[in-house]
Design goal:
52 strands; about 0% helix; Immunoglobulin-like; about 725 residues; 6-stranded mixed sheet; single chain; 5 domains; about 50% strand; 7-stranded antiparallel sheet; mainly beta
Length: about 725
């Protein structure tokens, strides 16, 4: 649409030459029934402003005023509702002064958006007026109107008067389709094109008006006026969003509809985003979380995709993640290796940054730090595992409840062939036994229950001898709480890390399932330091589990029962235990009994602020396999072998430590009462530093064992 510079301003104002002290009444002699009457000046007055007023129209079409502005120049407010409400309307008159019958045109009245005080203004963009169904020269009066068709012009208020020529109806209909633009443009030059179409006529199109505006502009600006072109280039500024619209004018005088908003739009972004890998600690476990971030000149921290590379000990760079939308992933390394990382980002316009020459973060892996998630027994056979795998993680979250944060999983394939792996994220609430169908309760069968419980199922192919990272932060759900199962026909392994909302990273190993689970180390303290238990019921049957809590000496402290829906999970703090004395505290162990196999993970906050975890133990033994333990390695990491007597009998423990040569360097014996537990703290060894094997033999009963490590912050301190 061509922008007109002409402006019609019609207002009511007193002449400068009028005498001071002019009376509030202007005497106008009007003969009504032969009597002269004095007419009072109305307190309602209006100043009209119109831009681009049309001077001609066609039967069957509407006149469009691009901008109609009204200003209250009177002394009273305009009412938007009620008995004295005002609306904006219009009337048509013949050129010789007689009114056009309302049966010959449609009158549409515009409401005031709100009460308008004296001095206030309002603007109607694209104000529409229906024309008469007659041809000829007419006069259009736009006026304020009160209820019962009381036009204020009849009360001495100036209206807006325009001469308009109405031509015969044009049967042709014009339309313009503007070819789409990308949501983001990585060039300042925008190629704009359009196609005009005429239906119902053959006069043709005489020209196009092309307009543009930015997201912050109030008015449209002309790019091209009355052009015969159907393509053009527009040069814009970086970081601005532009919208465009095109109007066609026919040779017969018809005009295409003009949209209020743009027909197409695009945002210019010509600069590449910057990105960086967050710093890593000097030492990390073999599976650790890597995080990165970016900043884009247009979209700030919002970036489309990332490429992440790593290298080992200043070697060649290797692609780790390509085109990932996430900003964190779990990396699986090898013990004792140094890994370096760098990242580049691509924004939504397709601008891709460059990798920096130097690494942005570096860390060295250590088996000592793996102990924070519990140390598994050393393999008893050199033969690698084979066959199908199901690995359960009783906790899986994205922006989870109680500041639990988000989890990531790393899956390793030890075989020589690629392995397909299903990662199934299940809802914590599980599935009820029945559902409502109409007014009836209908049973939910196992297959439907399984499908309902699975919120998301991912299929990943893990390369031979390789790893694959799954970050729950990339799930489409904004918030997720539940449990996860990793299933494959190959003997894959997996571990997990949770990024808590306070920034802590907490490692987890998968949990085995069993009808009886043993938790050798738990504690009830205050809300911040009590143990958390995550419990999952992978069965399609609803169950009730029983948990018995013992203190260190084996005395029962409390027994509770928890109902669990089918395929559900729970995460709870021992601070919430409903003991007779809610302020009581204890350290000890627990046993979970269930009618069908369940899985559990335990989290414990240590005095130095670190968090250790371990999967609940399923196996008990009289002669344990070897465990790797250490004292004061890697700056002060020390393990503790936590031993739980699982029988109602006194057990004699024999604990032996062997060095790397298989020589016994220390041993001890301990009497363990029924259901009691014992902390075999490697810090008590009469050796400054130790890294070797730990073995337990139990006489008189069976025990459950978990080996946990603690960092330098717990140096010289045994677990409470």
């Amino acid at each position: 649409m061509r922008k007109s510079s002409s402006r019609t301003i019609i207002g009511f104002q007193l002449g400068a030459a009028m005498l001071a002290g002019l009376l509030l009444f202007i005497t106008a002699l009007s003969m009504v029934s032969g009597v002269a009457v004095a007419q009072q000046v109305s307190p309602i007055q209006v100043k009209w402003e119109v831009e681009g007023a049309p001077t001609e129209g066609r039967v069957g079409a509407r006149l469009t005023f691009p901008r109609l502005k009204l200003t209250n120049s009177g002394t009273v407010a305009w009412a938007a509702s009620g008995a004295n409400e005002l609306k904006v309307g219009y009337r048509w008159f013949y050129g010789y002064g007689a009114p056009v019958a309302k049966t010959n045109y449609e009158e549409v009245r515009a409401n005031l958006p709100q009460d308008m005080p004296p001095g206030g203004s309002l603007v109607y963009p694209n104000f529409q007026v229906a024309v008469p169904n007659l041809t000829g020269d007419f006069v259009l009066h736009i006026d304020l109107v009160q209820p019962n068709d009381v036009w204020l012009q009849t009360k001495g208020v100036k209206d807006l008067v325009l001469n308009v020529s109405i031509k015969a109806k044009d049967s042709s209909v014009l339309s313009v389709a503007v070819n789409s633009l990308p949501l983001f443009s990585n060039s300042n030059v925008i190629n704009l094109s359009w196609i005009g179409k005429e239906e119902g006529g053959n006069a043709g199109i005489s020209g196009y008006d092309v307009q543009f505006k930015t997201s912050t502009d109030n008015d449209w600006s002309n790019l091209l006026s009355n052009t015969n072109l159907t393509t053009t280039q527009f040069r814009g500024d970086n970081a601005k969003t532009y919208q465009f619209r095109v109007k066609a004018t026919g040779k017969s005088g018809s005009i295409s509809a003009v949209p209020i908003t743009g027909q197409v739009f695009t945002r210019i972004d010509t600069l590449s985003p910057s990105s960086n890998v967050d710093s890593l600690p000097a030492l990390s476990p073999t599976a650790f979380l890597v995080r990165w971030s970016s900043f884009d000149n247009v979209d700030g921290p919002n970036t489309s995709l990332f490429d992440v590379q790593y290298r080992e000990s200043n070697g060649d760079w290797t692609n780790w993640l390509s085109g990932t939308p996430g900003n964190a992933a779990l990396f699986q390394g090898q013990t004792g290796k140094t890994y370096q990382f760098r990242v580049r980002a691509m924004d939504y316009a397709g601008n891709r940054g460059e990798y920096p020459t130097n690494p942005q973060a570096s860390t060295t892996t250590s088996a000592s730090l793996n102990s924070l998630a519990g140390i598994s027994p050393n393999p008893t056979s050199a033969t690698p595992p084979s066959g199908a795998t199901t690995l359960l993680f009783p906790l899986a979250v994205k922006n989870g409840d109680n500041s639990s944060g988000t989890m990531g999983y790393v899956i390793s394939n030890p075989t020589d062939k690629p392995a397909d792996v299903f990662i199934r994220f299940n809802n914590w609430a599980g599935v009820p036994n029945t559902k409502k169908v109409g007014d009836k309760d209908v049973a939910i069968d196992d297959n439907e229950a399984t499908d309902t419980a699975r919120v998301v199922t991912l299929l990943e192919t893990v390369p031979a001898k390789g790893t694959k990272t799954v970050w729950a932060g990339n799930l489409y759900l904004p918030v997720y709480n539940g449990w996860a199962a990793i299933v494959s026909s190959a003997p894959v392994t997996a571990s997990a890390v949770r990024l808590a909302s306070d920034g802590k990273t907490i490692a987890y190993n998968p949990a085995e399932t069993g009808n009886k689970l043993y938790l050798p180390y738990i504690k009830k303290q205050d809300a911040d330091t009590s143990s958390y238990i995550s419990l999952a019921n992978p069965s399609t049957k609803a169950i009730t589990v029983e948990i018995t809590y013992y203190n260190d000496s084996g005395t029962v402290i409390f027994t509770e029962k928890r109902d669990m829906a089918r395929l559900s999970s729970q995460r709870f703090s021992l601070a919430s235990l409903k003991l007779a004395d809610p302020t009581s505290r204890f350290t000890g162990s627990a046993v979970i009994s269930a009618p069908s196999p369940v899985a559990a993970t335990v989290e414990n906050n240590l005095e130095d602020g670190s968090v250790i975890t371990y999967p609940a133990q399923v196996k008990t033994t009289q002669s344990s396999p070897d465990y790797t333990v250490f004292k004061n390695t890697d700056g002060g990491y020390t393990t503790t072998g936590v031993i739980q007597n699982t029988t109602n009998a006194t057990v004699t423990l024999k604990i032996e430590y062997q060095n790397d040569n298989g020589q016994v360097v220390a041993s001890q014996e301990k009497q363990l009462s029924p259901f009691a537990r014992y902390n075999a703290w490697q810090g008590s060894l009469q050796i400054d530093k130790f890294s070797g094997k730990f073995k337990v033999t139990a006489t008189g009963g069976e025990v459950a064992i978990v080996v946990l490590g603690a960092g330098p912050g717990m140096k010289d301190r045994v677990f409470p």
